[in-house]
Inverse folding.
C-alpha cells in the first residue's frame, strides 16, 4: 500500500511536469508533493520500526483481551447472574426449610432476619389454604409475627398469589422448587420468585428484576471504566516494555550500520544476560573480528603496494641504468674502436702516433672501468644491499685522509687546501670517506689553478655532525643545484669529460647519505660553491649491521 501511494504521487508529479504551467506554480506544486512524499516516507519508516510494532502488538493483545471480556459480559453476564441468583435463592430455601422443619421459632426468626438483611430478599410463608403465615414486609411494620393472615401491602399479596399460581405443582410435590417471573403492572416492576414447599406450607422468595438490572448496569459500567483504565495502563506498560526490549535491538542496529561504514568504534554496551545480550556480545565480537581482519587486510595491501612500488622503482632504476650506461659508454667505446681500427690499418706510422693511440685506448678503458665500478656501487646503495657498520668515526681524521689521498691530483696546480674542525659520530667510516673523497675530487676538478679548497667539520646541537667542502670558482645556477644529484647529470658536458668526470659521483653521495640516515646539500656561497653532509649522532638501527 505505501509503495502504491508513492508510485501514484510520482506519476501525478510527472503529469504535472508535462503540462505547460507557469514556472513558479510548477515549482510550488513540485515542492508541495515532495514534502508530502517525504512525510509519507517518514511515517512509513516509523511504522516499520520494531519498537512501534512491539508496542502495537502488546496494545492489540490488551485490546483483544478487553474486547473479549466485554463481549462475554455483554452476552453471558445476565444469564450467569440469573443462575447465581437462582442458586442463592435455592440455598436460602434450603436454610429456611431446615429451620422451619425443626420447629424452633427463635432459630427461624434469626435465619429470616439475617437473610432479609444480607441478601435483599423478601420472603413469604403461606399455609396450605393460602393464608399468610409470615411476610417480610409485614414483619418490618408490625414486628416479627407468625400466623397473622394478612399482607402489609395488597399488591404484594397479588404478587405472591401470582407466583403460587404460576409455579409447577409437579416440581413442588416432588420436593423441589420452581422459579417463576412475575410481572406487576401496577408496580411497573418484574420479580424473580422462588416457590418451594415447607412441609404442607409454601415459601415464596422474591427479588425485583430492577435490583438485578441495576446491579448488572453497575457491573457493566464498572467493567467499562476498569477496561478503559486497564487499556491505558496496558498502553503505558506496552510503551515501557517496547522501549525496554527494543532499545538493545535498536542499539545493535546502529552498531551494524556503523560496521557497514567500516566504523568499528561503536559497540553494544548493554548488560543483559538473556538471548538479546548474547546477540549483542556476538555482534561486538563480530565487530572486533572484522576490524582485525580489515586491519590485517589493509596492512597486507599496504605492504603489497610498497612491494609493487619497490619493484616498479627497481625496474625503473634498471631501465635508467641501462639507458644511461649505454649512453655514457657509447663515446669511449667509439673512441677505442676508432683508435684500434687505426692501429690495425696502420694509420699511426710513427712511434709517437702509436703511443698516442695506445694511451687514448687505455685512458678510455680506464674511464669505462671507473664508471662501471661507480655504477655498481651506486646500484648496491640504492637497492639497500650495501653492508654498513657502526663505528666511532673521527671526522677530523676523515678530512685529513681525504687531503692526503688527493695530493697527487693537486700536483702542479698550486691549490690552497685547508682542513679545520672535527667531531665524532657513530656511523660507517668507509661510506663517510667515500662521500668526502667524491666532494674533494669534484672540488679539485672544478677549482681553477691557484684557487682555494676548504674542508671543515663541526658538531651540531643534537649531537650529530656537519661536514662541508668548499671550492673556489664559478657557482652553479640555482635551478640546476637540485639536478646535481641525478645520475649522469653535468652542467657542462664537454668540461666534465675533459676533466675525467663520470656524472655518477654525486649520485653515490646522495645514496650514501640516505643509507647513513643523513642528508646532502649543495649551495652557492660567496666566491664559490659548498657541498655538505649532515650526519645523525648514531647510525639508524634500520641501516646498521653491527659486526
Amino acid at each position: 500500500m505505501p509503495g502504491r501511494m508513492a508510485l501514484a504521487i510520482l506519476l501525478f508529479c510527472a503529469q504535472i511536469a508535462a503540462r505547460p504551467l507557469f514556472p513558479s506554480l510548477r515549482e510550488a506544486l513540485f515542492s508541495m508533493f515532495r514534502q508530502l512524499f517525504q512525510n509519507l516516507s517518514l511515517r512509513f519508516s516509523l511504522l516499520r520500526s520494531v519498537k512501534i510494532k512491539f508496542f502495537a502488538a502488546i496494545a492489540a493483545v490488551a485490546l483483544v483481551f478487553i474486547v473479549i471480556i466485554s463481549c462475554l459480559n455483554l452476552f453471558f453476564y445476565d444469564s450467569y447472574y440469573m443462575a447465581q441468583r437462582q442458586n442463592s435463592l435455592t440455598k436460602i430455601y434450603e436454610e429456611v426449610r431446615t429451620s422451619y422443619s425443626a420447629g424452633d421459632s427463635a432459630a427461624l426468626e434469626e435465619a429470616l432476619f439475617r437473610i432479609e438483611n444480607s441478601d435483599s430478599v423478601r420472603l413469604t410463608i403461606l399455609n396450605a389454604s393460602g393464608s399468610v403465615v409470615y411476610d417480610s414486609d409485614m414483619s418490618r411494620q408490625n414486628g416479627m409475627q407468625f400466623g397473622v393472615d394478612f399482607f402489609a401491602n395488597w399488591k404484594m399479596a397479588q404478587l405472591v398469589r401470582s407466583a403460587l399460581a404460576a409455579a409447577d405443582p409437579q416440581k413442588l410435590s416432588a420436593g423441589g422448587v420452581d422459579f417463576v417471573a412475575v410481572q406487576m403492572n401496577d408496580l411497573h416492576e418484574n420479580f424473580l420468585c422462588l416457590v418451594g414447599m415447607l412441609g404442607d406450607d409454601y415459601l415464596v422468595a422474591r427479588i425485583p428484576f430492577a435490583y438485578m438490572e441495576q446491579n448488572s448496569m453497575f457491573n457493566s459500567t464498572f467493567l467499562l471504566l476498569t477496561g478503559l483504565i486497564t487499556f491505558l495502563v496496558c498502553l503505558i506498560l506496552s510503551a515501557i516494555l517496547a522501549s525496554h526490549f527494543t532499545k538493545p535491538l535498536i542499539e545493535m542496529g546502529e552498531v551494524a550500520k556503523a560496521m557497514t561504514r567500516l566504523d568499528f568504534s561503536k559497540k553494544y554496551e548493554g548488560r543483559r544476560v538473556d538471548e538479546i545480550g548474547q546477540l549483542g556480545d556476538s555482534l561486538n565480537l563480530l565487530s572486533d573480528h572484522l576490524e582485525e581482519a580489515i586491519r590485517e587486510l589493509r596492512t597486507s595491501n599496504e605492504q603489497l603496494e610498497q612491494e609493487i612500488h619497490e619493484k616498479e622503482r627497481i625496474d625503473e632504476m634498471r631501465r635508467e641504468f641501462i639507458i644511461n650506461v649505454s649512453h655514457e659508454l657509447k663515446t669511449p667505446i667509439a673512441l677505442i674502436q676508432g683508435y684500434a681500427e687505426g692501429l690495425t690499418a696502420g694509420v699511426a706510422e710513427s712511434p709517437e702516433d702509436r703511443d698516442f693511440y695506445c694511451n687514448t685506448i687505455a685512458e678510455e678503458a680506464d674511464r669505462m672501468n671507473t664508471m662501471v665500478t661507480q655504477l655498481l656501487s651506486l646500484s648496491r646503495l640504492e637497492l639497500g644491499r650495501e653492508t654498513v657498520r657502526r663505528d666511532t668515526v673521527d671526522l677530523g681524521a676523515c678530512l685529513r685522509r681525504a687531503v692526503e689521498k688527493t695530493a697527487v691530483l693537486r700536483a702542479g696546480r698550486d691549490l690552497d687546501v685547508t682542513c679545520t674542525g672535527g667531531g665524532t659520530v657513530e656511523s660507517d667510516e668507509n661510506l663517510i670517506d667515500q662521500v668526502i673523497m667524491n666532494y674533494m675530487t669534484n672540488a679539485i676538478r672544478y677549482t681553477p689553478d691557484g684557487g682555494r679548497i676548504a674542508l671543515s667539520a663541526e658538531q651540531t646541537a643534537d649531537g650529530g655532525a656537519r661536514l662541508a667542502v668548499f671550492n673556489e670558482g664559478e657557482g652553479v645556477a640555482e635551478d640546476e643545484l637540485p639536478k646535481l644529484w641525478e645520475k649522469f647529470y653535468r652542467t657542462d658536458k664537454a668540461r666534465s669529460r675533459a676533466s675525467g668526470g663520470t656524472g655518477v659521483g654525486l649520485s653515490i653521495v646522495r645514496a650514501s647519505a640516505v643509507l647513513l640516515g643523513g642528508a646532502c646539500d649543495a649551495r652557492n656561497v660567496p666566491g664559490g660553491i659548498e657541498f655538505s653532509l649532515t650526519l645523525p649522532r648514531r647510525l639508524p638501527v634500520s641501516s646498521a649491521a653491527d659486526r
